[in-house]
Design brief:
Two copies of one chain form a homodimer. Chain A is globular. Chain A has five helices and six strands. Chain A is α+β, with helices and mostly antiparallel strands. In chain A, strand 2 and strand 3 form a beta hairpin. Chain A folds into two domains: about 70 residues, Arc Repressor Mutant, subunit A (Orthogonal Bundle), CATH 1.10.10; about 50 residues, Ferric-uptake regulator, C-terminal dimerisarion domain (Dna Ligase, domain 1). The N and C termini of chain A lie far apart (about 35 Å). Chain A is about 35% helix and about 20% strand. Chain A has a three-stranded antiparallel β-sheet with strand order 1-3-2. A three-stranded mixed β-sheet of chain A has the order 5-4-6, with no helix packed on it. The longest helix of chain A has 13 residues. Strand 6 of chain A pairs antiparallel with strand 6 of chain B, so a sheet runs across the interface. Chain A binds a DNA duplex through helix 3.
DNA sequence: ATAGAATTTGCAACTTAATTGCAAATTTGA
DNA sequence: TCAAATTTGCAATTAAGTTGCAAATTCTAT
């Protein structure tokens, strides 16, 4: 388990633990742990502020969250299915590719997001 | 002007013309042409369906729209300011970099989005 | 030109993700 | 163990985007 999770209290810990397994939306989290949505969103905000989790929005503007743990979960591209709008995590970009990309920005980069869109295998069936 | 715009009627044309100059949100478009927001959104939907414009969402889930005109406006990365959430268009990716990126996806890619985040020059002042 | 069909518009109501105020409940810590 | 600080649930709110419907506009065939 990622060290960052050790000092978290109850609900933040539960959320971070679930996200360490799988990228999830606020609604999916709410279905897994039985607390009010306001609590879910407040905990998500705290975890984002502490940089323990990352947010990825799908094309409908729905936020998905994943653990931000350098060793187990480095920054990686995502694939969004244009049918079901599910988000898939892909393998991490290597440093040469990150470097190549960063040359396109005239401003200092704090974060890079790469998202592919298409139809996932589930929806192709 | 991009050929695609020639056959558009009044409001779709106005919107496409504005977007050929600058990436804009629905609200910004509404401030520029005086029509109901439902009309703005309906026209945006039509233009998206015809693939005359493209949508980029900022981190707040607000859609920004830009002309999708191969010659004048090929697919390119965007920069989002984490302070003002403004979207900037950057220079287009070259084909080698697109190829390198596409190797990360196990699914067939219909679209690639690259977004950098940081603080823009306006907000740094 | 003009009547009828088809399309587009404005308005108001609605949907959905996310946020917020507030009082109650829980946790913390001296 | 009791007061202060934090967290929670509930209900109301915000904001982007959507939709139903009737009125207005545009298109088309004669």
């Amino acid at each position: 388990m990622c060290d960052k999770l050790k000092n978290l209290k109850n609900n933040e810990f539960k959320i971070a633990l679930l996200l360490s397994q799988k990228i999830l939306s606020a609604k999916e989290l709410q279905n897994l742990i039985n607390v009010d949505k306001a609590t879910i969103y407040r905990n998500i905000k705290n975890l984002l502020k502490k940089e323990i989790i990352r947010e990825i929005k799908n094309s409908n503007g729905v936020g998905f969250y994943e653990l931000n743990c350098k060793i187990h979960n480095p920054i990686h591209p995502h694939f969004e299915c244009i049918i079901c709008n599910k988000i898939y995590c892909l393998k991490a970009l290597n440093s040469e590719d990150v470097l190549a990309l960063s040359n396109y920005s005239p401003f200092e980069i704090k974060e890079i997001e790469v998202k592919f869109k298409g139809i996932c295998n589930e929806c192709k069936k």
